[in-house]
Amino acid sequence: xxxxxxxxxxxxxxxxxxxxxxxxxxxxxxxxxxxxxxxxxxxxxxxxxxxxxxxxxxxxxxxxxxxxxxxxxxxxxxxxxxxxxxxxxxxxxxxxxxxxxxxxxxxxxxxxxxxxxxxxxxxxxxxxxxxxxxxxxxxxxxxxxxxxxxxxxxxxxxxxxxxxxxxxxxxxxxxxxxxxxxxxxxxxxxxxxxxxxxxx
Length: 200
Prior knowledge:
- One of its GO terms (molecular function) is DNA binding.
- By secondary structure, the chain is mainly alpha-helical.
- It has 11 helices and no strands.
- The protein folds into 2 domains: 1-51, Arc Repressor Mutant, subunit A (Orthogonal Bundle), CATH 1.10.10; 60-196.
């Protein structure tokens, strides 16, 4: 007999199983019925939590984004000591976290550009607290003093990432571009980029 579970626990279980199925056989080949069978529940129970398969997929993407944000927060807490180091860790994580670079789930995102956009939006929203902390630390030191510091930071991250998709960009170039875009002191990021930025 199926054990009744807390609704949130059940929803998380459905999302986790759906993620495994999407990874194993692709989005198109995965049905709500298959997800229900793998979870061990009636198909109607899946529809109780999600109206469509697209909603299940959105739940999976949100879950992946949250996992990466938690990883980034842990990374920042463990390894950062200065504003510039924290900024570089954010930059490095931003590119490595991006869907097309996540080991094991890239096949999901290669199927549809829309999914990349969905992940991207979710990730940026979930990183709001991280951006705010780094910006506050920078402003205390006299940096990021513009009217829209968060938007400027996001625009800089987006711009350098977009450039890296068009041409080869070294970690030193990335550090220099961010220094210039955010009006940071010369060599403040470049000097530590070899230690804190990973090459692809």
